[in-house]
Amino acid sequence: MASGKPITCKYCKNQFKFDSDDDRKKWRDNLYLCPICKIDYCILPETERELKKLQKLYIDSGKKQKYLNEIAKILYKYVPSLIKRYFTKALYEARRNEGEDALDNYVHKTVIYVIENYLKRDDFYISVSFAGYCKDAILWSFREKKERQSNDISMDFEMDEEGHTAQYADNKLNLLEKIEQDEYRKDIVKTLMAYIKEMKNFCSQREYYVLLVVLNNYLYKGDKYVDKFFHVYNDNVGKLKYMQFLDILKKEIDCLFFEWKFS
Questions:
Q1: Beta bridge partners of residue 7, listed in sequence order
Q2: Of 14, 31, 219, 243, which one is least surrounded by beta carbons within 10 A?
């Protein structure tokens, strides 16, 4: 049975669960369609849903510019709210030093940064949330400006729970949110352990042993110890299995985080 908290459709407000990971994967492949009201990307707020739909249209159409233009139009309305919510102090300092046009300037820089990535990188795709990606882009725009200014502007950023360096020290998670996130982390660990055990069916006994050893090295010591292991043992087959498994884990974590963030 699949574990985790129930999924809530943001449009019909009904909750649902899946009996297996295969069913959950089919749901993802079917664009997160609500099984009750049949709305796609049903766990996303309206703006995020619209951006996801446009991104898919852009990619499926062979990257027609009209869809990218629509994405930019929405971002020009979306990014100001993100700056005002997560970068209050930085915006205050920027207005004090640069004038009332500061908000418009940082919005423009952020949107251009996102759109340029679509144009420059063939593989560019925002897999989690546009808000999360834009928050990182906003942070970059403030820091890039800060490097060219005096050290008078103080922006005390810290890593937030999503892994984005976009929150301030005074924007703490409340206790209930922390408990909820801790429980979800436990669910992720259970899911990832299931994938590790499942890999045994696709490896020889030796390959599976190598995979476990290398994963242990990776988790406790980092990439350089993995490289040292394969340099010493020159095990190309084991390395291939390890790289394949990391790719599976990355995709699964992206999907799990996406579901948790918006459910």
A1: 16
A2: 219
**pLDDT above 90 covers what percent of the chain?**
28
Determine how many CB atoms are found less than 10 A away from the CB of residue 108. Answer: 14
Are the C-beta atoms of 4 and 187 separated by less than 8 Å?
A: yes
Tokens of 197: 């055990």
Cα separation, 237 vs 243, whole angstroms: 10
What residue type is 256 in one-letter code? L
Q: Where are the domains of the chain?
A: 1-43, 46-168, 175-262
Span 23-53, pLDDT tens digits: 888 998 899 999 999 999 999 999 999 999 9
Which residues are bridge partners to 157 per DSSP? 168
> Distance between CA atoms of 75 and 138, rounded to whole angstroms?
12
Tokens of 72: 């930019």
Band (pLDDT 50/70/90 cuts) for residue 161 is very low
Distance (Å, whole) CA 166 – CA 140: 10
User: Over the chain, what is the mean pLDDT?
Assistant: 77
Contact 82/51 with Cβ under 8 angstroms? Answer: no
**What's this model's pTM, rounded to 2 decimal places?**
0.59
Other C-beta atoms within 10 Å of 54: how many? 19
Q: How far apart are the first and last CA of the chain?
A: 19
Q: What is the largest CA-CA distance in the chain?
A: 66
C-alpha 140/C-alpha 163 separation (Å) is 15
Classified as helix, coil or strand, 97 is helix
- The two tokens of residue 223 are 């990439």
81-98 pLDDT, tens per residue?
999 999 998 999 989 988
> Shortest CA distance to 192 belongs to which of 253, 257, 255?
253
Q: In whole angstroms, what is the distance from residue 108 CA to residue 119 CA?
A: 16
